[in-house]
Amino acid sequence: MKFSENWLRSHVPTDASRDELAATLTAIGLEVEEVTPLGESLAGVVVARIVECAKHPEADRLQVCKVDAGQGELLQIVCGAPNARPGLVAPLATVGTVVGEITIKAAKLRGVDSNGMLCSAKELGIDADASGLLELPDDAPIGASIADYLSLPDASIEIKLTPNRADCFSVRGIAFDVAAACGSAVVAFDATPMPALIDSALEIELDAGAKVPRFVGRVIEGVDAAIATPVWMAERLRRSGVRPISFLVDVTQYVMLELGQPMHAFDRDTLAGPIVVRHARSGEGRAGEELKLLDGRTVSLGEDFLVVSDSQQGGVGSRAVALGGIMGGHDTRVTDATRNVFLEAAHWVPSAIIGRGRKLGLHTDAGHRFERGVDPELPRQAVEVATRLIVELAGGSPGPVVEAMLSEHLPRPARIALRRARIARVLGIEIADADVERILRALGMQVEANDAGWEIVSPSRRFDIAIEEDLIEELARIHGYDRIPTTLPGGATRIAAPTETRVEASSVRRQLAARDYLETVNYAFVDAALLAQWSASENAVPLANPLSAELGVMRTRLLPGLVSAVQRNVARQAGRVRLFELGNVFASRKSGEAPLETLRIAAAIHGDARSEQWGEAARKADFHDLKGDLDSLAAASGAVLEYRPSAHAFGHPGRSADVFREGVRIGWIGQLHPRLLRALDLDDEVLGFELDLAPLTSRALPRASELSRFPSVRRDLAFVVADSVPWAAISTTVREVVGPLLRDLLLFDRYVGAGVESGQKSLAMGLILQDNSRTLTDRDVEGVVTAVVAAIERDHGARIRG
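Predicted structure:
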């Protein structure tokens, strides 16, 4: 929110300096982002009129001007501004005036005397426009101080507002906070109703229920819309970051900035009553109702949009003439030729406006305010204020104010009990009753004292005041956070011991960091097109109000965002990238149920297996490097992972696997498919894994056991099996057959080639056997070996290698 300092001070008189005012605003939660001084040190700059212009004899781009500065005789000024012309009224810096860092002196320019300088807005320090002289209205008083005429000096102050302070999207809303903080009072505002002079009116119908519970309109006839916007109004708009456009439009903008109520002005002659507020209509075979907006765009509106409509096309409410709460229509806009005006101001509830402008790529001041909430009591007041400005400045005869209202849907401020003891308990200090009442009344609240404290009714503009703690927060920020002492909490604290049945997430992070990975934090919302590339769009949760079209759905996997981070690093010449992320993924469920959130761990690697070094030759990271990293994570919980060939579309066939623990699939590991890498603009291999964290980190409660005093026995077996049979399946079979006697199982050789049939492989494994109660005999060992051989032959079609 940007506003003029002088405009604010006209609503709340205060002796605070500009710096003190800025510091106060920040201290009470209205963070000042920028203060831009305007029109400092303009003594000696006056309003002047160019009477004559002649070409400079020695320079094509210069003119010799005769200027009336109200001093009796004309001054000769050499000027190079392209808009210098007879009759133009502009600022003149007289001899001796300091403009910026320049002292104006009588001088000769190319041999011609010049006694002053005609100025642009930039030279005066009131705007960035340096394209020509600052053009003033023809009726500006010649010879008057430009500072007095333009209400200078001033400052443009920009504040950063939190979403809950929608009431401060207006100068008057900010004034209440300043009054409370500075011990002042807000000046009474004149919103005296303008009496109706004519009977002309448009009937209004509300057909959107609770979404638009109030709509106010008024016809004004005989307006001179072609008049120039008064200087004082145009300057206040400009200093608030709004470019003046035309008188009628500027009036609606001015009222919005002053009171906080967005308005719209229609050309009455383009409307046919009654006016109907309704949902947009989608006809058979059409995407939605079409409307040409003020910016010239034609948009198609679905039924979730609200429109203002008239009845010009033959039926009641048949033609949409404005996009509700966001922007007016092109065909009914006011122009300099407008003579009859229909003013409207309405209360659109935030839920009916949120996200609608973003769907169309629109961001308007009106939509920004309605999304956060506007005082439901303002529409009639805004119409009265706008009517007075129009009639006093541009003439015209107002008709009666027409108000359509659904009172049962209008919000009503609740009475809130504020307890004196509760203030002291929450803040840790006591605030004097007189200060409590002064602060709350200065903020516009109704205050009634009782034995325990007060009964408070907040003003209708304060949507953020709902409970007692909200009032205490108001007292804290106005009284001053710096006046609340810092104290540490006392009392005994209960320390919960971490469970031993789960490996903590912090341990997972440390383990991967120790293996040379860097942790990343990516957005939980991603581009739907990215998920489609990964074939991961199923059950994606769309956002109702996304930050942008590229962040429109919640992620269903961690890897797409993680690999995008790899791609960004590779694009910046990072040769070796190793990243991991621990975060939630989301999946939609039945209608009405909250999305399912699952905590996962993912990692992605690209480039060499080791950092650049002299000790060993460089080689690319492969599947087994990544698998070793994953197995190191599993070892912390004692998990035995099984790897089975994967059929996921994003994985490289034959180089990716699904990961199982105790027969349950918990994730995926492997190399990305070359087709996906090309789509992601990656030229080299990328490998990754993604697993549910909970099953990976759960572990049995550790129990101490006695070490066996008896020797272990090792037997080696070599067998031939089909190449399609994974070692993990054979390992599972062996462990099930041997049972508790098996201390360890090692795969120490894999061979294909001469002596082994095509499509077969030779695997050699070592069984390490041990009993806790006795020494194993040869008969015990042979029995185990025989059982293992039989099980492998039966379950996997293997044969002992001769």
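Summary: The chain has a mean pLDDT of 91.
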